[in-house]
């Protein structure tokens, strides 16, 4: 995640991460060892559950970052920058919040677009030039 | 550093529990006490044994989750939380006793983890204000004298760790409860519930089975946030005032 889904992301890096995560998940389930049982107070099980959640979240973050081909806010897609090196927005295509519906581990989530409507203050291209 | 740990192991609430001895090696003086326990747990897991259950969350001294009696002292030898205690406070070869909070109102769940929900119920009884707050109001809209603001802040520092209860020979929760009451009762925002707050929170505190204060002062010595003993006097004063005022109505 640090390497491929950090501050600056690229199409190829995100695709690499999306290839890696299922491998990590497979390795997790193959090698996981949780002491104790599910019938008792079990902090190790709690931690293992969190790792499972993080894998899902990581996958979704990469998928969403790949889908949003523009740069905006803390999401900087290297392909989408102005000649000055600022984040280049593409509001015509991406002025929506993406809500992803979970359809099962490893399954493609379904995108629900929630359009962003700006009545008074409109988003503009940042420029310090 | 090489250390001998004697750790309280208790399978569940019904188990009797006993101290177990473990050796740990390669402990850096820069490790926090909890990192030292992480090291022990990693070894236990590799050996196929049950790791030691202990509470922790922020590991930066603000959440109040970490709670260990170390060599008989709540949070150990320094005046801080267990997570902010470092192994440089110990010497190579030391033997360290590690136990859970001991108080009948804090039953052990497993090993070093106790159930502190009694504190939550004390808060629920009155640790809130009913005035609608909305978004952050303009800072000067309600004038608060500086000494009152300071006093409220001093008490708001309580993180609800429970060290005061663990240290008290009576298992009393008066330092904690007084911190919550003084925090809100001194502020204008807390004024509408000033009487009901102290009466309800003290009643809840008693109902939870916490003991009464005999001014031993152990609580204020153990408190990692420096809540002073006079807070209890302040709570008692509030309580007396409230009983008289409520009786008049
Ligand atoms: S008064 Fe101090 S020792 Fe007691 S719960 Fe609050 S922070 Fe912890
Ligand atoms: S873990 Fe949060 S205060 Fe120690």
TrEMBL record, chain B:
Pfam families per UniProt: Fer2_3, Fer4_7
Keyword Metal-binding: yes
Domain 2Fe-2S ferredoxin-type, first and last residues per copy: 1-102
Necessary cofactors: [3Fe-4S] cluster; [2Fe-2S] cluster
BP-aspect Gene Ontology terms: aerobic respiration; respiratory electron transport chain
Alphabetically ordered keywords of this record: Iron, Iron-sulfur, Metal-binding
GO MF, any single term: 2 iron, 2 sulfur cluster binding
InterPro entries listed in its UniProt record: 2Fe-2S_ferredoxin-like_sf, 2Fe-2S_ferredoxin-type, 2Fe2S_fd_BS, 4Fe4S_Fe-S-bd, 4Fe4S_Fe_S_CS, Beta-grasp_dom_sf, Helical_ferredxn, SDH/FRD_Iron-Sulfur
PROSITE patterns associated with the record: 2FE2S_FER_1 (PS00197), 2FE2S_FER_2 (PS51085), 4FE4S_FER_1 (PS00198), 4FE4S_FER_2 (PS51379)
Domain 4Fe-4S ferredoxin-type: from-to ranges: 149-178
Domain of life per record: Bacteria
Family the UniProt entry places it in: Belongs to the succinate dehydrogenase/fumarate reductase iron-sulfur protein family.
The protein, known as: Succinate dehydrogenase
Lineage: Bacteria, Bacillati, Actinomycetota, Actinomycetes, Kitasatosporales
